[in-house]
Design brief:
There is one protein chain. The chain folds into three domains: about 20-145, no CATH class; about 155-300, DNA integrity scanning protein, DisA, N-terminal domain (YojJ-like (1, 3-Layer(aba) Sandwich), CATH 3.40.1700.10; about 300-470, YojJ-like (1, CATH 3.40.1700. With about 475 residues, it is an alpha+beta fold. A hairpin with a 2-residue loop joins β3 (about 75-80) and β4. The radius of gyration is 26 Å and the shape is globular. It starts with 20 loop residues before the first helix and ends with a strand. α3 (about 135-140) crosses α4 (about 155-170), α8 crosses α9 (about 315-330) and α9 (about 315-330) packs across α11 (about 395-400). The longest helix is centred in the N-terminal third of the chain and has 25 residues, at about 20-45. It has helices at about 20-45, 95-120, 135-140, 155-170, 210-215, 235-240, 255-260, 300-310, 315-330, 345, 395-400, 435-445; strands spanning about 50-55, 65-70, 75-80, 85-90, 170, 175, 180-185, 220-225, 230-235, 270-275, 280-285, 285-290, 295-300, 335-340, 405-410, 415-420, 450-455, 460-465, 465-470.
Length: about 475
């Protein structure tokens, strides 16, 4: 997935003037402050980040002069205030292009803020200090040109995020507001804008009737390149009109697949405040960011799906399970999918023989369907017997996944169990005792094959060989 430009806006500032002793102290204090903010704000996206100085400046530097480099060993090196730092974003995982773009975005915003704080001859851009810092980092990731030193136009993405945040504080007819906007990109003509069109911004949320016009899922506001509200559109019909032979590389939650398709071409960006009060950002044909539980998360569905697909081996099976996991997460419904490498080995170790859907492997249900009897569910096994998840309707697969327990298939997609409580022994619990029940089951099951775990807070996680490899 490629979003925006990967080029850095460039170093900012000129050679520092002669510094007095007091100026040296001030410059050092400012540099220390900004590096601390750089480290802190990176941690909001990468909780495990480590920023380690590798050098010291020969003399105090009063400009950030932010530069990002990659060493021959693949290490991220950032230059700030004349000091080179090594940036380790996470432990044990490879750094991708989107990660580098995120670090560039943080550096660009901080550099621009420093410029407008200490160089008063530049035009004022007070919008740089409106909203959360993380909102501007997300905006700089998507449209880096808006945070270049030569830019004077505010970021539409940052403005839209603030608008959605304000809308999230409102209710309409005792219901939380959901809404969204499609920001037109720079490629191709757009619909004409009325001469009296309103600017799409926070001020618009003062009109209560505005919340009735679009729900964010079926309809969104269309915003032109100048930030004006052009019209209300049906996002599915808009996406269907896009002339493109491309299809999204990875699945997206069914409710928002049209939003992703609408950004495949043209440089359009779509932002949505969902009924779950989550802010979603779509660009280049997939969901790039999500704001939930008080923090932004950089999503990389393309790379994550590639890891999952390689582990599963069957592209179609991988896509079906991945799609269903995203749909369950959007409904805030938990679940667990396991693709068993060797069913003969796993039966009796991970899967109880009584849970098997095969006629020869399963015991008969009890004669009386006593409420609360854990064996009574065998009476429903015939519904999934000799079935493949590849042939099930998506809604049926979601229903089966919503039962307490796990769904397990073999490598071909043949349904082995549904609603199964997975087995484990004491040795398998090592390293998982501090986790919740579903996470513990996912860790243990991943030693038998690739696992997708869906949390009720809307996060999908992949587990391989006893460890979590990504969250989405």
């Amino acid at each position: 997935m490629r979003i925006g430009s990967h080029s850095h806006p460039g170093a900012i500032g000129s050679n520092p003037p002669h510094l007095s002793q007091a100026g040296v102290r001030d410059a050092s204090a400012v540099a220390e402050l900004f590096v601390g903010v750089f480290r802190r704000d990176l941690a909001s996206f990468y909780p495990q980040v480590q920023v380690t100085p590798l050098s010291s400046p020969s003399e105090p530097v009063v400009e950030p002069n932010f530069q990002l480099k990659i060493s021959q060993d693949g290490l991220i090196l950032a230059d700030l205030f004349g000091v080179r730092y090594q940036v380790d974003l996470r432990v044990g995982n490879r750094v991708g292009e989107l990660d580098l773009q995120m670090v560039r975005a943080v550096g660009a915003v901080l550099s621009l803020r420093h410029q407008h704080l200490f160089q008063i001859h530049h035009s004022s851009r007070l919008e740089l200090y409106r909203g959360g810092s993380e909102d501007h980092y997300v905006a700089a990731f998507v449209e880096p040109w808006a945070y270049a030193s030569t830019s004077s136009r505010p970021s539409r993405v940052a403005s839209t995020i603030q608008t959605l945040r304000t809308a999230a504080l409102s209710t309409y007819e005792n219901r939380r507001v959901s809404t969204g906007a499609l920001l037109l990109g720079g490629e191709g003509p757009g619909p004409p804008t009325a001469s009296d069109a309103l600017h799409y911004g926070v001020e618009l949320t003062a009109l209560k009737s505005i919340h009735r016009l679009c729900d964010g899922k079926r309809t969104v506001f269309l915003v032109d390149r100048a930030g004006k509200l052009v019209e209300v559109i049906d996002i599915a019909r808009w996406a269907a009109r896009i002339e493109s032979s491309e299809t999204p590389e990875v699945p997206c939650a069914r409710d928002y697949s049209a939003h992703a398709r609408a950004t495949l071409t043209g440089g359009h960006v779509c932002l949505v405040l969902s009924p779950n009060q989550e802010i979603k950002l779509f660009a280049s044909g997939s969901q790039a960011f999500a704001f939930a539980h008080g923090r932004w998360r950089l999503l990389d569905p393309s790379s994550n799906f590639a890891v999952w697909a390689r582990a599963v081996g069957d592209p179609r099976l991988a896509r079906v399970l991945f799609q269903t996991a995203l749909d369950l997460a959007e409904c805030r419904q938990g679940g667990l999918f396991v693709v068993i490498n060797d069913p003969a080995y796993s039966i009796g170790r991970l899967i109880s023989p009584h849970d098997l859907l095969t006629e020869e492997g399963a015991s008969s249900p009890p004669p009386d369907l006593t409420p609360g009897d854990p064996l009574a569910k065998r009476a429903l096994h015939y519904l999934g017997r000799n079935r493949s998840v590849l042939d099930l309707d998506p809604t049926v697969l979601e229903a089966l996944a919503g039962l307490d327990g796990a769904i397990a298939t073999d490598r071909t997609g043949r349904l082995l169990v549904f609603g199964s409580i997975l087995r484990h022994d004491a040795s398998a619990m090592i390293g998982a005792v501090a986790e919740g029940a579903r996470t513990t089951a996912a860790i243990i099951a991943s030693r038998h094959g690739p696992v997708l775990k869906i949390s009720e807070d809307g996060v999908v996680s992949c587990f391989l060989e006893g460890r979590r490899v990504w969250d989405l």
